[in-house]
Amino acid sequence: MPSEKQNIWIHLADTKAMPLSIDREAEETYREAEKLVNTLWERWMNRFSDSSTSHEVLARVAFQFARLYLETYQDNKNVNDYLTEFEQQLDEIVLKID
Q: Strand, coil or helix: what is 73?
């Protein structure tokens, strides 16, 4: 059964609000992401207020989240590779016992 969709508005930094159509059960994730971006943007706007525009700070925030995403992706890939190798070794051990 397909998920029920709902329309929400996301407000990021001082940009124009964005309408999104999302699965109803995903709203909490979207709202948390919105909050994280805005919190970091506000903190960095205060920190870099003398040297950066709002859009430059938002670009820094986007870069930070992209970097964190890639680091997490690589960490997950490494864990998956390790578990795959471990499973193969375990299979070999179990097959030798039979």
A: helix
Nearest-angstrom CA–CA distance, 14 and 53: 11
DSSP symbols for the chain: -PPPEEEEEE--TTSPPEEEEEEGGGHHHHHHHHHHHHHHHHHHHHHTTTT--HHHHHHHHHHHHHHHHHHHHHHHHHHHHHHHHHHHHHHHHHHHH-
- The domain segmentation of the chain, as residue ranges, is 5-97
pTM: 0.77
Per-residue pLDDT of 42-64, as tens digits, reads 999 999 989 999 999 999 999 99
